[in-house]
């Protein structure tokens, strides 16, 4: 229970609770970086064979598909057939990789030639309905009526494969250098394998199309799979920067979708570069002028460049950009343009002939809008309906599997990610004894810096004091310093009024900001025990709070990391303390402790590992290992999922690198439960402590998150 007139009670009274920072700081900073990078590529837009080869390799690496995985035999099972006028639908399941079931429909023309063109249709985010969404059925049926054998499948987490809203958020894949879109592109590649396995399809005339997320899938799949002859991405192509800015403050589909955020892609290309990989083959982009997610003005920017690149290659007629007065989607006018383009190129016709879309006898949509959002529904109705998604009975004829089938694709994908990691774990090498420790740590520091992808160039911190009072034997300052251009870090410096000696200091970083330590009473207890505190809000936290998901995934596309930038903010906090020399109580610069709380514990551990000025580090509720996050149902902030980190080192290595100084650790697993002393990772850490001959409690691994225990530990060290 907090005592009366506590620090927390008085801060607002004294004016220290007033924010001097704009909430937009972090996202403004990211948006500026994105725009600058995009403009650079739009200006440098020439495409050469060497540039194409490099960008294609980079795209594959970003998708986690370089080199392409070894293909397992493609298992295909036909589960039924539906006869329609002018075409038929074969229901089937495919296995993209062991244990992962893909439900699909193959639309076959009623009258086929010995060799027919083939088409892969990739769904956008029609999550519940998937391949049975009316616009998708309409397109595939009309394509079949034109004589094109068309395959459409339910993407991960959609249609019959819907298991959880988290199925579009495989952040865990990032830890081993893969990504959500890479998983989806691989499924498309395996579906192309199926089309090419059929003896009634012309292998030289395979097309691909899709809208929104399907356009995304189409653009990237056709960039890396040379077997595709004709590409038609719809309602997606624009500039990467345009879509990022358009999605500003929308948190990328409520913070539950990492399909669009391809790692590092904006560090080496704009979308015009990726589309130009397809030259000289036919490419059509179709957009709606009222698309608010992928703005048509940004599409025009890349279309102009792509058109020039096709003209320079001598095939200006092989690229076309068409816009229609529509919003986001694959509406009838857009579909009819696509039919004409596909007909021209897949059948080698001399010109585009206008095609009027035929009316289709649709399989009922399992989840029509009026079903999922009934008019005048009571709250009880909505609650019951949202708790269990049960498709309409008449729609079941379109299902490839019995409706109550549990396919466990989420677990299968997690298992494949874990299997890849455990089959080739690249753990950072250990040292033999203390004589090897410094060399080992120096090597680890280099790899950590590379993984964090954050600035190492220090500029003046430009400190500011916005308020200062002396009260109750304390000096309290509301401060600010500049971590890097455009990023100002707010903080509170609170020191005992001791004029005769320098005072040790704790730099506190909480997952939720400085108020986390104030409201819990922890910071006040530290001060009462004669230790100064600098409590800071790293970027995007506390006073500068912004969406972790949005900022982290946007920076991921730039090949930067929000986590790394926050670690940098902690290091700059040390700079602030180190440079302080006022006519006020003085800081013992040999007694600088870092204390992190929650995710802040990781920022503190990483900063301490990289900065030798730290006298000791405390991790309250510190995640012990990235391995705990290899299950996508474990939900940590997006910024924690460092790209490729488990290909290089683990958190345990970072912890060990701090063992040349005092370390207090309250380790937790992915469920935020304290890790048992019998856990093999704790046993391993203890063995390292013994090998380094660390005595006493210089390294303490605690089973409690007890503030008094932490304070006593610091006092005993001092």
Structure, described:
With 718 residues, the protein is of the alpha/beta class. The strands form two sheets. The chain has a nine-stranded mixed sheet, with helices on both faces. Strands 10-11-12-14-13-15-16-17-18 form a nine-stranded mixed sheet. The chain is built from 23 helices and 18 strands. Helices cover 37% and strands 19% of the residues. Residues 370-388 have low confidence and may be disordered. Strand 16 (616-623), helix 21 (651-657) and strand 17 form a beta-alpha-beta unit. Helix 2 (25-43) runs parallel beside helix 18. It folds into two domains: 7-33 and 425-717, Rossmann fold (3-Layer(aba) Sandwich), CATH 3.40.50.1820; 45-421, 3-Layer(aba) Sandwich (Rossmann fold).
Features of this protein?
single chain; 718 residues; alpha/beta; Rossmann fold; 2 domains; 9-stranded mixed sheet; 19% strand; elongated
CATH class of the largest domain: Alpha Beta
| Major beta sheet, strand line-up | 1-2-3-5-4-6-7-8-9
Taken together, the total number of domains comes to: 2
CATH architecture descriptor of the largest domain: 3-Layer(aba) Sandwich
Mean pLDDT reading: 92
CATH topology of the largest domain: Rossmann fold
Uncertain segments: 370-388
The largest sheet is: 9 strands, mixed
Helix content: 25-40%
Derived from helix and strand composition plus strand pairing, the structural class reads: alpha/beta
The CATH superfamily of the largest domain is known as Alpha/Beta hydrolase fold, catalytic domain
Using only CA atoms, what is the Rg?
Answer: 29 Å
Our measurement of the CA-to-CA distance between the termini, rounded to an integer number of angstroms, reads 28 Å
- List the total number of helices: 23
Strand content: 15-25%
By DSSP, the count of extended strands is 18
Q: What overall geometry do the principal axes of the alpha carbons give?
A: elongated
